[in-house]
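for ur thesis appendix - Golgi SNAP receptor complex member 2. copy paste whatever u need, i formatted it the way the template wanted (i think)
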Amino acid sequence: MEGLYQQTNKQVHEVQSYMGRLETSDKESVHLVENEIQARIDNIFSNLERLEILSSKEPPNKRQNAKLRVDQLKYDVQHLQTALRNFQQRRYLREQQERQREELLARTFTTNDSDTTIPIDETLQFNEHLQSAHRGMDELIGSGTNILQGLRDQRVTLKGTHKKILDVANMLGLSNTVMRLIEKRAFQDKFLMLGGMAVTCLIMFLVVQYLT
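the 3d part is after this line
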């Protein structure tokens, strides 16, 4: 399991570095970068399925820690998948706006008695459509931000849970040691009590014999 975990963790870091190339890629190559990132993410998800099975087969004393490590990888790759989808949505809206702007600029004006008539209604409709697209993009960005914040909160919670589990494990180990000391002391006290009773009985017997 350790080898597959290290391999998957390395792939997650590689995808993170690939994400930085999205913003600098030109229109011709951005699709290739997106496809490469998605293929790597799919491969990571496939490895995570195998890791979940392997973690459930770990010894009981290692199983919980193994599952926590796999969950951490799962949260990281879900964060990357969300970031990729948000980028694709922004790129789609940007390309759509560019196409609509080019279509508007390419339209020919109509003439009427040597006067130029500009289609005001269509221009207003186009501006309204652009504003609606901007609002939709803002909503998508806000939604993506909320998702990322949720993943960060889950990551912090997972780390806190991991720490608590380790603290409880340490506490249980200390409690077991204390219990063993208490049991040993109780066993010794039992023999001391029995010895004291025996000595007391002997003294009483000798006193009775002496007095009589």
